[in-house]
């Protein structure tokens, strides 16, 4: 973990610089718009979201228990990596956006385990039945009636499951998913294509642990996306903006409280280039979220054509 140390004390003069005001506007304006859109859509924005969207796979013959098993594996793996990181560097690592996002993805899988467990319980419940007396039916008629009953039960169950609207926990999970979708792409692209080249000549040492922390987050989330049934509207982009905005506000707050360093060099305000960095990073959120949305759309487009009978959005 490399730090950008600032030698100047943080005083009133620091916050009265012109670039600080410009950077504040670059942060406040998108945050205000995103917050307004989120509040406005909170009343009806999740009405189309069904409970089964969060735990029923998009693969027709795949039992929900396999998605549950994957989420358990992803959660345990990420929890172990986060534990190793904290054990190696201390709680100080949570000053970084990487650990914020990593923890958010971990929270997504934790909620996903609860939602999937509840979904598997619903999915496994079968109403009891009594088929006609076997003494009065031939084996062939008995078999046909049993098959017809099973088909009808499956249709009723699917209709019943897909008619249930998402609850508070499902909505929270769905919101976190969209915040993570853009954040993991932003985290990994910035790390591998900006920070690593900038810090390659300094005291920064790229270890296996640090490399994994900036890779498995997007890998695990993409694998979940390959199996889950989440709708992916662009309106959920606001959650990604709010998440990053919360991190920036956190950094400015602790800096105002006396911390004299920034975890990332492009957050430094004591330079005339600060507005350009902040504006560039704000714009970079659009392709980051767009790239993930494109991958999800590509999944639906490609798999539905290659596997038309196996790949199906059930809800």
TrEMBL record:
Looking at the record's lineage, which domain of life comes first? Eukaryota
Q: Which GO terms describe its cellular component?
A: membrane
Task: Print the keywords alphabetically.
Answer: Membrane, Transmembrane, Transmembrane helix
Residues spanning the membrane: 15-35, 68-86, 92-115, 176-200, 206-227, 239-264, 276-295
Q: Which PANTHER family match?
A: OS02G0130600 PROTEIN-RELATED (PTHR12242), TRANSMEMBRANE PROTEIN (PTHR12242:SF38)
The name of this protein is: Uncharacterized protein
């Amino acid at each position: 973990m490399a730090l950008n140390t600032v030698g100047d004390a943080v005083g009133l003069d620091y916050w009265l610089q012109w670039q600080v005001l410009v950077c504040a506007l670059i942060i406040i304006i998108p945050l205000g718009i995103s917050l307004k859109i989120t509040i406005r859509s909170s009343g009806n924005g999740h009405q189309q979201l069904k409970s089964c969207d969060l735990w029923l796979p998009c693969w027709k013959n795949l039992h929900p228990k396999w998605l549950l098993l994957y989420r358990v594996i992803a959660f345990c793996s990420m929890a172990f990596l986060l534990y190793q990181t904290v054990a190696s560097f201390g709680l100080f690592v949570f000053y970084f956006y990487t650990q914020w996002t990593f923890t958010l993805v971990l929270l997504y899988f934790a909620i996903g385990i609860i939602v999937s467990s509840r979904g598997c319980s619903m999915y496994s419940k079968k109403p009891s039945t009594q088929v006609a007396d076997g003494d009065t039916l031939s084996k062939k008629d008995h078999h046909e009636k049993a098959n017809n009953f099973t088909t009808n039960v499956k249709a009723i169950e699917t209709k019943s499951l897909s008619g249930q609207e998402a609850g508070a926990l499902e909505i929270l999970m769905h919101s976190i998913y969209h915040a993570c979708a853009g954040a993991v792409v932003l985290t990994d692209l910035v790390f591998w294509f900006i920070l690593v080249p900038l810090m390659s000549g300094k005291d920064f040492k790229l270890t296996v642990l640090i490399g994994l922390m900036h890779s498995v987050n997007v890998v695990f989330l993409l694998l979940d996306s390959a199996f889950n049934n989440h709708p992916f509207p662009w309106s959920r982009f606001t959650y990604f903006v709010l998440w990053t905005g919360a991190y920036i506000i956190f950094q400015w707050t602790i800096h105002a409280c006396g911390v004299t360093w920034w975890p990332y060099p492009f957050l430094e305000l004591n330079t005339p280039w600060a507005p350009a960095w902040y504006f560039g990073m704000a714009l970079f959120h659009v392709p980051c979220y767009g790239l993930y949305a494109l991958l999800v759309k590509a999944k639906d487009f490609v798999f539905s054509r290659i596997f038309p009978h196996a790949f199906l959005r059930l809800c």
